[in-house]
Amino acid sequence: MIGKSNNYKILSVFKIYLFILITSFSNIALSNGTNVLGIGIFDVKFDGSEKNQATDFRYEFRSDNSLIDIGPKEDNFFFLKPFFGIEYTNDSASYFLTGIYFEDNLGELFEGNKSKYFFTPSFGAGIYEDGSGKKLGNDLQFRTSLEISYELKNSNRIGISFSHISNANLGDKNPGVEILSLSYHIPY
Question: What is the value of pTM for the model shown?
C-alpha cells in the first residue's frame, strides 16, 4: 500500500499529466466527434450489497481523430481515440476524466457486414471527489467501460454501458463502484 505522502505526489504528477494531455490534444478536442449524454445507477450491485446507490449523470466528448492507428486502415477496431468527460451524481460526487476508446461495428466484427450495432470499450483516469457519496479511497480513480449502442435513422445512437471505477489499490481502501447507464450519442 502506498502511503498518504506518496498519494499526494502521485496525484500531483497525475494532475500535471492530465493538463499536458488535454492541452496537447486540444486540436483533437476541437475536431469532429460525438457528444455522449448518459444517466445511470451509481453503485449498482447484482447481489444487493450496494451501500451508496445514486443517480449518475455523464457527459463525454469522444473525438473522431485517432491517436494511434494499429492495423489496416479499413478496420477501425484498432484506432485508439481520445475522450474527455465528467460524471456527477445526485449526492454531489464528481469525476473528471480523460482516456482512450475504440469502437467497432458488431456486424463487421462477427459477420463481415455493417450493422447498426456498435461495441465501444474505453479506459480512462481522472480525479474523483466523493461529495456526500460513496468514499472510493483516493482522488485518483480509473474507469473501464463496455458499451453497446444502436444507430438511429438520424445517425444518433442510443446505448447501454457498464463501467467500473477503482483506484487500483493506490488508496487506503479500494471499494470500487459499478455504474449501469443508458446513453444518447450526438455526432457532429
Answer: 0.81
